[in-house]
Amino acid sequence: MPYLPALFFAGGFVFDLMTLGRIDNIMNILSHGLFLLLTMGALIAQILEVKAGENAKRFVVLIFTYQHDIIHFMLGALLNAFVIFYFKSGSLINTFLLVAVLSILLIVNEIEFFKQRGVTLKVVLFTISLSSFFIYLLPVLIGKTNSGIFMASQVCTLLVILVLWQLLLKFEVDFSRIKNNLLVPATSVILIFTLLYGARIIPPVPLSLKQIGIYHNIEKNPTGFVLSRQTPSWKIWARGDQDFEARAGDKIYLFSRIFAPGGFKDKLYFHFQLKDRQGKWRTTDKIPLTIVGGREEGFRGYAYKQNYQDGIWRALVETAEGLEIGRIGFTVTSSADDSPRTWYKEVY
Q: What's the domain count of the chain?
């Protein structure tokens, strides 16, 4: 049935989304590294056209018999995890293209026709997985994320590909085969990833926005942050007071919880923008926030605005280089009403 790969992908994606755990989990890192090493070994064997010997043990024969399925299982597991990391680390508007392309590749990876199409597609999927691995591993180890660290991740990816190249040369593989099956597809992936990062399409992994909302007041007490809103609890889709009724003296509070790995420390920005009469977004404020990682529920931080006007607003959570982690839209409407207001509380 042709639709089964898409169904299995959707089911696996939802399952992993719920169970994958923290991006800095040591077991995740070790399992991803092991899968990449095993996949690399299997790709070398395929390029060299290694076959099981006549006297090979049964389990060796089984491995070679089902080598395509084994490789695609490992690539599928890796890509599924990395798609989830990208999905969590950026707003859907910014990362839609990347997540969509990787999702299509995941589905392609499950289709039998493509499983048998030689080694080139496998090298493309392997390089995407390898690059994604270093994209999240280096910030976890270093404790921050920026363009220099991203470029270092791509250099690491290229070095692994060059090691593969040298290994194949030692087995006297024809250079044209190496170029067509390894160097061209792998370097193309690295170049595309670099261009996507420059276009701000690749999100700032390993950061992820767990919550964002607009409120009328925020206070800190021994129990945590107490958030006050007018929006009643039954409006479960609302993130605080996104329809902000502004009375004289009111401030607009933006609250967020941002996950970062343990040992992570970096500066982010709350970027407030107002839509002007021409429909363009105009920056009004960029408020810095230094985050410290390690907290399971995410680093809690907030900012407020006391100079604002009626209109359509949005607030973006960004890195220092402008990579978007998440956003929220809201409208501000002035009110002369002076009747008592009912406040609903949230505590984090």
A: 2
